[in-house]
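FAQ: What does the model actually see?

It sees only this:
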Amino acid sequence: MKRRPAPLVLLALLTLGAFAQMPSKSNEDIHRVGMRLACLCGCSDTVASCKMPGCHFAEPARVEIREMLSAGLSDAQILERFSQKHGASILRAEPSSLGWLIPYASIGLGLLMIYAFVRRYSRKPAPLAEIPAGDSRYQEQIEKELANLE
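And it is asked to produce this:
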């Protein structure tokens, strides 16, 4: 009869697995600096967000950023070195508050347009004008059409 591992051992193994997947502080630093650098592999992503497997630019750049950070260089110094090495076009602008404002403004504008549309088309239509009692021209037409129905 086989013995099963104690539940406490299983819990410890699961906990270690969870910690192994958590990003370290150095990965966050690399991501922070990498978001300011354009990937030069041909995609429109940054060094931090390039998803191309085996990217010939992003992966070595991340290693280079890690080495520069461990050497004690600041973010500005790292960006300056990449700019000197690859040209000023590699630098990406820092995210601004306008980038956060545009999606919410678009949602607000869309809601206003929906409100205006619903308000405009939910009004009751104007009542149809009644046929004057003395107008025989329409009355004869109505009588003919009613006779055809029967």
